[in-house]
Write a structure and sequence with these properties.
By secondary structure, the chain is α/β, with parallel strands linked by helices. The protein has two domains: 184 residues, Glycogen Phosphorylase B (Rossmann fold), CATH 3.40.50; 145 residues, Glycogen Phosphorylase B (Rossmann fold), CATH 3.40.50. The chain is 46% helix and 16% strand. The strands form two sheets. A seven-stranded parallel β-sheet has the order 3-2-1-4-5-6-7, sandwiched between helices. It has a six-stranded parallel β-sheet with strand order 10-9-8-11-12-13, with helices on both faces. The longest helix has 19 residues. The N and C termini lie close together (10 Å). The structure holds uridine-diphosphate-N-acetylglucosamine (UD1) and uridine-5'-diphosphate.
């Protein structure tokens, strides 16, 4: 019997981190599966960092990123350019990940070519179409198109059932981000070059990039950081700044050259993992970081009003703080001073996976033909 041809399409940093262990697992099963990898390069530099770490050499690189790109051109570039790849490869299945515009447009492209789609990290929902924007609609749309649903948790499976997805097409696999995290933490301990942190200060690690936080919300977040370092001389903040110009401009305007605030370039994944392990508290609006930090036992304060990842909130290691300066400052200061509260939030828990998600997905793929 001929091999099952799996075309994996991804384009941004988080998709690459979460698809890398799966690509590796597909390659390990080369007796049954043929792996073809296509990157849209919706991200360039921060995608390449991941490809290098996991030693993935894409078969197709569509190189679409433009400076300060917009959703319209991004969508049409992914749609048109993946069509050519799908036509040439003629895959048995296309795999996409999560909720980016690459995922949604690549899934649509496969659907137009009548190729079945597998959605990795299916079923996440906030049920609010503008939060996060445009990710909520990207994942709803992708789930509407696809045939195989690889859902990370019970909650994501339930969301799919509620959307009338047939139960036999839903596979609870755990999230491949935990596969990536465990592999990286075990195999690549890398310090951040040139970052001089004071060992006697508590480190607050922060990231932010959500489109709905552009403008005033991101400025409020920065003002909260200013207030926190002014009030608390026992903390230092490390902020690897996302390359999106809508993030970099306000962040550098407000936080550059501030004492005990380290603005640095986006970190290679292994270095970021080392920093998460060192951090006392993590402030973020990232999806992936909300999933990784609880398994490292780090309290996470989410700079958003809603999340599609309620599991760690239920366990008590993640809290939503939004983007209000006063709320961010008071929540961080409570965590800095209240040991009981800190302990409660720093239990290591793993609601998102056990490191075997990629293996479970591959078992399903091996049986699709
Ligand atoms: C994208 C995803 C978002 C995901 C995030 C992860 C969409 C619409 N958004 O948001 O869901 O959470 O990635 O980080 O799919 N840039 C660079 N170099 C890079 C990457 C980005 O310079 O390596 C700059 C470019 O100017 C680019 C801009 O950032 O135009 C925005 O990139 P884009 O992918 O459109 O949006 P993100 O905010 O990164
Ligand atoms: N990350 C990284 N370097 C950084 C910041 C984040 O490798 O400087 C990793 C992080 O550990 C997580 C992923 O990037 O796995 C999250 O990406 P991002 O926040 O850009 O996107 P989201 O998860 O919100 O879609």
């Amino acid at each position: 019997m001929s091999k099952i041809k799996v075309l994996t399409i991804f384009g941004t940093r988080p998709e690459a981190i979460k698809m890398a262990p799966l690509v590796k697992e597909i390659e390990k099963n080369s007796d049954v599966l043929e792996s073809v990898v296509c990157v849209t390069a919706q991200h360039r530099q921060i995608l390449d960092q991941v490809l290098e770490l996991f030693e993935i050499k894409p078969d197709y690189d569509l190189d679409i990123m433009k400076e300060n790109q917009n959703l319209w051109s991004l969508t049409s570039d992914v749609l048109l350019k993946t069509k050519e790849v799908i036509d040439e490869v003629k895959p048995d299945v296309v795999l996409v990940h999560g909720d980016t515009t690459t995922s949604m447009a690549a899934a649509l492209s496969a659907f137009y070519a009548k190729v079945p789609v597998g959605h990795v990290e299916a079923g996440l929902r906030t049920f609010d179409k503008y939060y996060p924007f445009p990710e909520e609609i990207n994942r709803v749309f992708t789930d509407a198109i696809c045939t195989y649903y690889f859902a990370p948790t019970d909650k994501s499976c339930e969301n799919l059932v509620k959307s009338n997805v047939a139960k036999e097409n839903i596979y609870k696999t755990g999230n491949t981000v935990i596969d990536a995290l465990l592999y990286t933490v075990e195999n690549h301990v890398e310090e951040v070059e040139g970052l001089e942190l004071k060992p006697n200060l508590k480190t607050i690690l922060m990231t932010s990039h959500r489109r709905e936080n552009f403008g005033e919300p991101i400025r409020e977040i920065c003002k909260a950081i200013l207030e926190l370092v002014k009030n608390n001389d026992d903390i230092q903040v490390v902020y690897p700044v996302h390359p999106n110009p809508n993030v970099r401009k306000p962040v550098y305007e407000l936080l550059d050259n501030v004492e005990r605030v380290h603005l640095i370039e986006p970190l290679e994944y292994a270095q970021f993992c080392s920093l998460m392990k060192k951090a006392h508290i993590i402030l973020t609006d990232s999806g992936g970081v909300q999933e990784e930090a609880p398994s490292l036992g780090k309290p996470v304060l989410v700079l958003r009003d809603t999340t599609e990842r309620p599991e760690a909130i239920e366990y008590g290691t993640v809290k939503l703080v939004g983007t209000d300066k006063v709320k961010i400052v008071s929540t961080v200061e409570k965590l800095l001073r209240d040991e009981t509260e800190y302990k409660k939030m720093s239990e290591a828990i793993n609601p998102y996976g056990d490191g075997l998600a990629s293996k479970r997905i591959v078992e399903v793929l091996k049986k699709i033909k």
